[in-house]
Design goal:
Two copies of one chain form a homodimer. By secondary structure, chain A is α/β, with parallel strands linked by helices. Chain A has helices spanning about 5-30, 35-50, 50-70, 75-80, 85-100, 135-150, 160-180, 195-200, 215-225, 250-260, 275-295, 300-305, 335-345, 360-365; strands spanning about 105-110, 115-125, 125-130, 150-155, 185-190, 210-215, 240, 270-275, 295-300, 310, 325-330, 350-355, 370-375, 395, 405, 410-425. The first copy, chain A, has a seven-stranded parallel beta sheet, sandwiched between helices. In chain A, strands 5-4-3-6 form a four-stranded parallel beta sheet, sandwiched between helices. In chain A, strand 14 (about 395) and strand 15 (about 405) form a beta hairpin. Chain A is globular.
Chain lengths: ~425, ~425
């Protein structure tokens, strides 16, 4: 047996042990009371408070290793657990503890003509595998959401955050045990070899769903190799369409907010469409604001005629999520061309229309095939907290199971409950 | 290029054409009005009425070919389109036309502290691929459910039903065109080579979900090879647990109904558990009824002590879906052992408890991890019509997206709708 083979066997045994332990813990956390789950969440808070210094030291190790490896500044920033980020982790845990427990909720219990009552009960999915990159605070967020939704979880963070993740994992484990729950309810992978991920996503007998959080490359690779269902979060090529009956002043304000309030989020505006009849007035009003923020404009021919500072867009621009101070702008005939362009080029994340025309709002809401469709609003609102979900594990651009921001409910399923009194089927 | 290669290229082009046409049609059917969709459904009824004779002739060709190939009697039975089955198809279409349209329904539209309104709108999934075996009436059922739920569909029936399926497909196409909709909304595959299925389930760009309907082998093969999400319907190893506080008379009646009313359905009872303290009274009361129906009993040691006609069960019996007049029976200590046995051996389809103990009902409903959990009721009620869904495309034993009987709602998704008045995110 050569080294590679021995390592593969070793990975196999390691991942299967994780899976068995998770499956066993899932039975317990599924029937845990709301009180027990909240107690665990608040005990994790206590453990983090008590271990701030050791978390800081572990993070320091990761930061030094990252600096030695010359990680990009953006990665180094995400890796750092500042005091304020630790405070955010604590606040997040307290918020999740305060959310209503989704598990066990029975809805739509109704009598049927046969005399039986039929309804649906919300239940956990079982075991959730979460694969993420550099931000160690995700360990805490993911653990809290899985715990509250009655699921066991296997968390696999980025190798560059290993020490930080293990320090947080110890606090999570301490909190779970303080509430009398199985410590394997949340397992944080302590190995960094890629084979672990490769195996984890092919074990439907132990893992019910995989949630990848990270760059396009990671998500595409996992989606293509997985034998377990994946809740995907792909890119956000988000559009704003300024209709011929839009309020121009509000449209400018929304276009500025949607593009410039943050460049790196998936609900940031990437492409603007504007109806021909209002294009000049709108674009001339908008351009100084974008200039002030240093936003580069890549425009269609008409846009370039109106705005001398615009550079010509290429075909590729219409499909690009810049995540940067760049925007593509296209002048369209009207709502038909706008909807058609969006359904052709959008990534199905979030699109918004600015208009006071009732029929146009109705058509836009119905015909645009994206996870969030908006009227007279900034695309930046597409977020679990803004939508009232209380927390968010990601934004799904899939249609099956969960679409749009995924909160606790997205980590659950519903089974049918049927009540009778000795009823038999004729 | 040898013959095989040429055939593969040919299959590739064929399937991609189907996919492109379906994707294009999906945009149209998604925005079709309720009136248009119902008009199409009722025009299919007219076409079937007008073509009863050609459907009968096509079916005759399939039956003759089946007889020549010496198909099993059960397969030959499923293949036959009797007058009464054609009537059932027509009635099914009329029922689906009468169901409320799920598409466009907006729920939970609420104001958020930021001032925006957030709700959810029900939308079609897009393109649904349905792969089924011998029953040609599935062509009509599947077409009607996809049409009403605003989806385009690619239907691939069994090779032995090719002529019947094509005759029905003509009626479906005529109905869709009579309502002014794109005839490619429902495409019925007219090729019988397996490569078509193999390719269809690996095209996420054209197919949004695959629903396999058929035997375990078909479903396992599709699940393992698919690159498209699959709504699975695996086997139904359904349990009835007769608790120590059960009404014995009602328990006998339910056990008889659940096992003997039909042997071949997925919600048929396959395994009985009975609490030790009532085992003798219950089993002695039940045995004559099973004897009358010729049901073979495979029992645990205690069962065999109580019933001399029982044969000893092997370990394999606890995991077996017989689909035949055979049942496994096990005497258990009480509710703990019953729940544990079920969660270990059940296929997660449907389980029922007979009891008058409140705590036991609460525990059974919460802790048994199956798509339908029942109290004092025959497992035979696990069915879309009995649950009030109006129609059913299958019973999902998955947890993600759809669980239990899948009706129109299971063929839809929800997107977020956000309404504002120039709102920007702070």
């Amino acid at each position: 047996m050569d080294n590679t083979e021995s390592k593969i066997l070793d990975t196999e045994a390691y991942v299967i042990t994780l899976g068995r332990q998770a499956r066993e813990a899932a039975g317990g956390i599924a029937k845990a009371t709301t009180g027990q789950k909240n107690k665990a969440l608040l005990a994790i808070v206590d453990a983090i408070e008590a271990n701030r210094e050791s978390i800081r030291q572990a993070n320091q190790l990761d930061l030094e290793a990252g600096a030695a490896k010359k990680l990009e500044p953006a990665l180094m920033d995400r890796l750092e657990l500042t005091d304020s980020r630790v405070n955010d982790m604590i606040e997040g845990l307290q918020q999740v503890a305060a959310l209503p427990d989704p598990i066990g909720e029975v809805t739509d219990l109704k009598y049927r003509p046969s005399g039986i009552q039929v309804g649906r009960m919300r239940v956990p999915l079982g075991v959730i595998g979460i694969i993420y990159e550099s931000r160690p605070n995700v360990t805490c967020e993911a653990a809290s959401l899985c715990l509250k939704s009655g699921n066991a979880a296997i968390l696999r963070g980025g190798s560059e955050a290993l020490h930080s993740n293990q320090a947080i994992a110890k606090c999570v484990e301490a909190g779970i045990e303080a509430a009398g729950l199985n410590k394997n309810t949340i397992q944080v992978v302590d190995r960094t070899d890629r084979e672990v991920v490769g195996r984890l996503i092919t074990l439907p007998e132990y893992v019910d769903v995989i949630v990848p959080r990270g760059g396009k490359g990671l998500i595409a690779r996992i989606s293509s190799d997985a034998k377990v269902p994946v809740i995907k979060h792909l890119d956000g090529n988000c559009h704003l369409y300024v209709d011929d009956q839009a309020d121009i002043e509000k449209s400018v304000s929304v276009a500025v907010n949607a593009k410039t309030s943050r460049y790196g989020t998936c609900c940031t505006l990437e492409s603007l469409l504007v109806a021909d009849s209002v294009a000049k007035e709108f674009l001339v009003g908008l351009a100084p604001h974008y200039a002030e923020h240093g936003v580069e404009i890549r425009g269609c021919v008409k846009t370039c005629e109106i705005l001398s500072q615009a550079v010509p867009a290429t075909a590729q621009d219409w499909d690009t999520e810049y995540l940067a101070p760049i925007i593509s702008i296209k002048v369209v005939d009207g709502i038909d061309e706008a909807i058609d362009h969006i359904n052709r080029h959008s990534s199905g994340h979030t699109e918004s229309i600015m208009t006071n025309n009732y029929k146009h709002t109705q058509r836009f809401l119905r015909e645009v095939d994206s996870s969030s469709v908006m009227v007279n609003t900034s695309t930046r609102f597409a977020d679990g907290f803004e939508y009232g979900l209380g927390a968010e594990i990601g934004i799904s651009t899939d249609k099956l199971h969960a679409r749009g921001p995924v909160g606790l409910e997205g980590l659950t399923s519903q089974k049918y409950v049927v009540l009778g009194d000795g009823h038999i089927r004729q």
